[in-house]
Amino acid sequence: MMTVSALASPGASATASIEGVLALPGARLAYQVTGAGPAVVLVHGFGLDMRMWDPQATHLAARFQVVRYDARGFGASGPFDPAVSYTHAGDLLALLDYLGIQKAVLAGLSFGGRVVTQAALSAPDRIAGLVLLDSVLDGVPWDPGSAAASDTAVRHPRLAGQLAEMVAGYPGQHWTSHDPHKQAGPPPIDTLEKLAMPVLVLVGEHDVACFKEMSAVLALRIPGARYHVVPGAGHVINMEQPSTVNELLVSFLAQVTEDQRCPR
């Protein structure tokens, strides 16, 4: 099922987008594709959905094909069958196959960062680049201070309503029933050195200590990774500082595209 709609930010002309649903064993993935050009896939944080990327979608679609979707069990993708095993990385790669995208840059925030890292390790030939925003990295200890402060990581009260709306739409099935998610290969923290594609690591200046440590480990362990602290932001940096993040994304994506066009 596909529908065509228009997407626009205030003051901008509408950009046609395609919305659809990919049926997978035991689940479905709701997705949206906007723009044309080199592909970039945006993966949301835990408990949120593709709407968190509203500040980026139209901006990036002026130069790129922007794909965003609700991961299995989140947002419009709805419930999943707890008897059918899966991986979020496998779902992402299945969506690329379905859309006929051979290679893409993947960007993910928090939980989404974990997903795109696992996808890149599983199918490195499909991934042109990675952007890891305040990414989860399992294996870095979660300290009590960060756990206590996690609810206050977002620095901008204006976002409270948007975030609350997304969280309210999350049914919590991953917690309330059996989640048959499988381990997608070895723990990423043990294999980060295998990531040979361009990588940009972003972290909010005011994010909690644990996520800062995760980002620091990613930047240190991934060969050639670029690292940038986003001023004035907590955890959901793309919503808190959209102009800064958009500028960083466009610059990175343009460089990846140029490098692919003119390999050294």
- Distance between the amino and carboxyl termini: 42 Å
Work out the count of structural domains. 1
- Strands side by side in the biggest sheet: 1-2-3-5-4-6-7-8-9
* Main pleated sheet: 9 strands, mixed
Question: If you average the pLDDT, what whole number results?
Answer: 90
The tally of helices reads 9
Residue share in helix: 25-40%
CATH class: Alpha Beta
CATH fold field value:
Rossmann fold
Describe the structure using short key phrases.
globular, alpha/beta, single chain, 33% helix, 264 residues, 22% strand, Rossmann fold, nine-stranded mixed β-sheet, 9 helices
Structure description:
This protein is an alpha/beta fold. Helix 1 packs parallel to helix 9. It has helices spanning 54-61, 88-99, 111-122, 144-149, 160-168, 173-176, 209-221, 237-240, 242-261, and strands spanning 2-7, 15-24, 27-34, 39-43, 65-69, 104-109, 127-133, 199-204, 226-230. It is built from 9 helices and 9 strands. The longest helix is centred in the C-terminal third of the chain and has 20 residues, at 242-261. The radius of gyration is 17 Å and the shape is globular. The chain has one domain (2-261): Alpha/Beta hydrolase fold, catalytic domain (Rossmann fold, 3-Layer(aba) Sandwich).
